[in-house]
User: Which sequence fits this backbone?
């Protein structure tokens, strides 16, 4: 499948048309941003790692009955995926307090929850991706109640699968962000990416941060952390 014209350029990926109306090619960049684009930088090799990691995790999720946009890895940075219309909601699942949760509620990071939480934010850069609940999303016609119920069910199923997988790698899945899309034939699928850009991953023993917080918080060792997560994934994924 050949790349045709560029359809879109985001912060971390470009999207290209193909000869098929139903398929697009995503191309992963090394560019990194944080704080709604205020902090910019490069994480060398990140595009390759995020492409390969996201694809392997999506394959694993497919094998557990979770539909995704993944079709075929084309090269180190390029992947063929189903063309979707993105539901403009960032779906965040948390198992442990961190980041904006810790800040909003004035608690420390690292509190292990009895049950995972789910929250939505409205994907809108001008507004800074504001937090919203499912009633707001329905009022704004971002999704129907049925779709939101389906999104919740899939998001918790993704959490169960990812938590178990990362635990086998000696990594604690703290929280993560998912995006969903509707395919040209009307099916809801998991889209975007699953990577250290979109998940908080802590070493299970040392609690060392192995994700984009190293970039956000200038902790150093960003490239090494991404490479370490990829190495452990390759050792444990089993295909
Ligand atoms: N996240 C993301 N993109 C965003 C916002 C959050 O991928 O635009 C991920 C983030 O990496 C973390 C989880 O979602 O794993 C929860 O992020 P949080 O709400 O704590 O926000 P942050 O502290 O990253 O601003």
Assistant:
């Amino acid at each position: 499948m050949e790349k045709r014209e560029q359809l879109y350029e985001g912060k971390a990926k470009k999207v290209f048309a193909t000869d098929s109306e139903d398929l697009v090619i995503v191309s992963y960049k090394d560019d990194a941003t944080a704080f709604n684009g205020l902090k910019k930088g490069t994480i060398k090799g990140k595009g390759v790692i995020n492409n390969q990691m996201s694809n392997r995790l999506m394959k694993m999720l497919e094998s557990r009955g979770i539909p995704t946009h993944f079709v075929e890895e084309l090269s180190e940075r390029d992947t063929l995926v189903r063309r979707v219309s993105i539901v403009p909601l960032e779906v965040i699942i948390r198992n442990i307090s961190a980041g904006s949760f810790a800040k909003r509620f004035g608690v420390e990071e690292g509190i292990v929850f009895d049950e995972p939480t789910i929250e939505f934010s409205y994907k809108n850069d001008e507004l800074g991706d504001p937090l919203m609940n499912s009633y707001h999303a329905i009022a704004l016609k971002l999704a129907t109640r049925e779709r939101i119920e389906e999104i919740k069910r899939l998001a918790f199923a993704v959490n169960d699968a990812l938590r178990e997988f990362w635990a086998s790698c000696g990594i604690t899945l703290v929280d993560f962000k998912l995006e969903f899309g509707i395919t040209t034939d009307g099916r809801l699928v998991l889209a975007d990416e699953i990577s250290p850009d979109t998940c908080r991953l802590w070493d299970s023993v040392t609690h060392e941060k192995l994700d984009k917080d190293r970039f956000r918080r200038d902790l150093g060792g960003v490239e090494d952390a991404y490479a370490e997560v990829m190495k452990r994934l390759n050792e444990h994924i089993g295909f």
User: Anything to note?
Assistant: The chain has a mean pLDDT of 97. The two ends are 24 Å apart (CA to CA). The pocket of uridine-5'-diphosphate is lined by residues 90, 92, 98-101, 129, 175-177, 198-200, 212 (CB under 6 Å).
